[in-house]
Amino acid sequence: MSIIYKPCGMAREYSPYACNLYIGCSHRCRYCYAPHTLQKRADDYFGKPEPRKDVLRWLEKDLQKNSFAEQVLLSFVGDCYCDSADDGLTTREALKLLNEYKVPVAVLSKGGKKMLRDLDVFKEFGDRITVGTTLTFLDEEKSKYWEPYASTPNERLETLKILHDNGIKTFASFEPTIDPEESLKLIKKTLEMDCVDHYKIGKINNYKSEDKWQDWPKYLEDCISLLRPAKKQVYYKFCLRKLAPNIELLPEEKNPDEYIVRVSKNEQISLFD
């Protein structure tokens, strides 16, 4: 059984490898695709998830057999910093294992300050880790409606700032973008706070036609006007780019792997070391 896998489709734009430590989440985001993807009822998916059975044992087997020179993302299914049944112990132990085997890692979570309990482990990775959060709304009431049990927008921003000030490379995922004006306010806020190194920007997809009435070309142009002068690393997802084919983007703004975390092969611990 392999725990680390190669994502495909839209997920591949985020990372060449991924690992899901929990199957389930406590955040109950309205737009969550996971219950449908896993063919689970919402009530069976949302709650305090248990770690996957023997996940740490299978993770170490993966790491013993394979070298990973490109980042492994935690995680696409569930949130490794939600209110889990083991209080995040599996996340911490998985990070320690990944660091022991010199694997580059990206962490994406809406858990806010829960991420800071592993700040000491993040620091041990050096430049082999990037830690990010999804940003959707600056307005707390709107955020509460769409992401009922995730951390608040301000807590997510404060967490990014603490991570960044501690020398951890940070990223912000603006996918889904549900209300472009809210997302643009958040981008401005992150620039004021100087708390984000890399931006991933897309839109909401396949959720009750929420994306049908937005002016997506204007949103893309507005993002460019904010982020290019700030000389920030940005990747615009294909779902957004395809709706604005006449807007010229830089090559690095269209390359999903331009800014991923990597290590050289000779830094990897192989099976034969």
Describe the structure.
The chain is α/β, with parallel strands linked by helices and 273 residues long. The chain has 10 helices and 8 strands. An 8-stranded mixed beta sheet has the order 1-2-3-4-5-6-7-8. The C terminus is likely disordered.
Fill in the keyword field for this structure.
single chain; alpha/beta; globular; 10 helices; 273 residues
Q: Outline the biggest β-sheet.
A: 8 strands, mixed
Give, in order, the helices and strands: EEHHHEHEHEHHEHEHEH
**Tally of helical segments:** 10
What class, by secondary structure content?
Answer: alpha/beta
Low-confidence stretches: 269-273
Determine Rg (CA atoms, Å): 18 Å
| Shape descriptor | globular
User: What is the strand content?
Assistant: 5-15%
Mean pLDDT: 94
A few lines on this structure:
Helix content is 33%, strand content 12%. The protein has helices at 34-38, 42-45, 55-65, 89-100, 119-125, 140-146, 153-165, 180-193, 216-227, 238-241; strands at residues 4-5, 17-19, 72-74, 105-108, 129-134, 169-174, 198-201, 233-236.
